[in-house]
Write a structure and sequence with these properties.
This protein is α/β, with parallel strands linked by helices. Helix content is 40%, strand content 15%. The radius of gyration is 16 Å and the shape is globular. One of its GO terms (molecular function) is deaminated base DNA N-glycosylase activity. Keywords: 4Fe-4S, DNA damage, DNA repair, Hydrolase, Iron, Iron-sulfur, Metal-binding.
Length: 208
């Protein structure tokens, strides 16, 4: 049997977020489902003005079935609070909904999703964004940014810049996991919070 390369056939038309979340549990749009515990779908209010897009769920997220609840998620929570952005008012999701990893003993080590997997999973993200209709999308890391803004987009060159699309505006910054790995974690964290404060300020302007 040939490997499917898109989740499109699994995305129900006219569905609300609850129906999308339910339908995603049966997705076989790429091969990542075979080694993951479960789909980790987005979470947050359908009325959110800000959607935060990460790369993929990590080990903790895969086990719990919720986005951004591991170490990087806790750092994101702290940074959002310092930037006066309330997590409860933000919709959090990932470009890829299954955890890609390799097993090393009893540990499951994160592997970056390939372009084929990002494209295959894109119908879910497209459906989420079409329902929520946010004012602003914040992409965390290169994988998320390329999923939303195209494969040529480089976070290293355009970090913190506002990109206007027809449906919403987009800002890209680093993934919080990179802050945890940074040689100078304090400086990386301050820069990350500064980016989030810029997002909050821009949202304020969009609301006027």
């Amino acid at each position: 049997m040939p490997t499917r390369r898109s989740a499109a056939e699994f995305v129900p038309e006219g569905a609300d977020l609850a129906a999308l979340r339910s339908a995603a549990q049966t997705c076989r749009g790429c091969d990542l489902y075979a080694d993951a515990t479960q789909v980790v779908f987005g979470d947050g209010p359908e009325s959110a003005e800000l959607v935060v897009v990460g790369e993929q769920p990590g080990d903790v997220e895969d086990r719990r079935g919720e986005p951004f609840v591991g170490p990087a998620g806790r750092l994101l929570d702290k940074a959002l609070a310092e930037a006066d952005l309330i997590r409860g008012g933000v919709y959090l999701t990932n470009a890829v909904k299954h955890f890609k990893h390799t097993e090393r003993g009893k540990r499951r080590i994160h592997k970056t999703p390939g372009r084929t997997e990002v494209v295959a999973c894109s119908p879910w993200l497209t459906a989420e964004l079409a329902l929520i209709r946010p004012r602003l999308v914040l992409c965390l890391g290169a994988t998320a940014a390329k999923a939303v803004l195209g494969n040529d987009f480089k976070v290293t060159e355009r970090r913190g810049q506002v990109v206007a699309l027809d449906e919403y505006e987009v800002v890209a910054t680093v993934h919080p996991s990179s802050v945890l790995r940074a040689p100078d974690r304090d400086e990386a964290y301050r820069a990350f919070v500064a980016d989030l404060r810029g997002v909050r300020e821009h949202l304020g302007k969009l609301g006027k």
